[in-house]
Amino acid sequence: MTDPIPSPLTVVDALKQGGVIVYPTEAVFGLGCDPDNQQAVASLLAIKQRPVEKGLILIADNYGQLLKYIDDAKIPMDKRADIFSSWPGAITWVMPAAKNTPKWLTGQFDTIAVRVTDHPTVKRLCQELGKPLVSTSANLSGQETVTSIAMAKSEFAEQVAFYVDEPLGGNTQPSTIKDVMTGKVFRG
């Protein structure tokens, strides 16, 4: 009797095993991983050549997936209309981080950047994983963003566990990043 052929690794399996993935976002391909796996985040930062001090973005299917990472009680009621009227969509909000949010996500800050996406692929990945993904542009820090799987494979080769070859969301610019408390625009 022959051994059964192992089933191919799924993207969620790769994430659960601490792998880094390339996946489509609203405008560019992103590098992602499980935000609760310190080694996975360290691998992602090494691949991107990004210092941990800069912090990372979490991208989620819904606000509930972000509650573990943000200090919801610190967000004033009058700011919530701005947040929830912009989601789902390509607006990333910098919010107060929960006390137990790891520094490998927040970097040198006491805040964390989060987004509820409307990209169907990312929504599905977050639903299947049951949590948000780390989301940073798939490029070496300071270099041109990656807009195709071919570019990503050329850039990262075997450093990435899984390439999600699905369409980008159609936006021409990466998400706008705003501070929820002050309204300051960091990008966009």
Compile the SSE list and pairings.
Blueprint lengths: L10 H6 L4 E4 L4 E4 L5 H11 L8 E4 L16 H10 L4 E6 L6 H4 L4 E6 L3 H10 L3 E5 L11 H8 L5 E2 L12 E4 L5 E3 L1
Parallel strand pairs: 1-7, 3-5, 4-8
Antiparallel strand pairs: 1-2, 2-6, 3-6, 4-5, 8-9
Describe the strand arrangement of the main beta sheet, using strand numbers: 7-1-2-6-3-5-4-8-9
Q: Structural class of the secondary structure composition?
A: alpha/beta
What percent of residues adopt helix (DSSP H or I)?
A: 25-40%
At CATH level 2, the architecture is Alpha-Beta Complex
Return the string of H and E elements.
HEEHEHEHEHEHEEE
- Basic shape: globular
- Calculate the mean pLDDT score and round it: 93
What is the H level of CATH, i.e. the homologous superfamily? DHBP synthase
**Oligomerization:** single chain
Write out key terms for the chains shown.
globular; nine-stranded mixed sheet; 188 residues; 20% strand; 9 strands; DHBP synthase; alpha/beta
Overview of this structure, please?
- By secondary structure, this protein is of the alpha/beta class.
- The chain has a single domain (about 30-185), classed as Alpha-Beta Complex (DHBP synthase), CATH 3.90.870.10.
- Helix content is about 25%, strand content about 20%.
- It has six helices and nine strands; from the N terminus they run H-E-E-H-E-H-E-H-E-H-E-H-E-E-E.
- The radius of gyration is 16 Å and the shape is globular.
- The model has no long low-confidence stretch (mean pLDDT about 95).
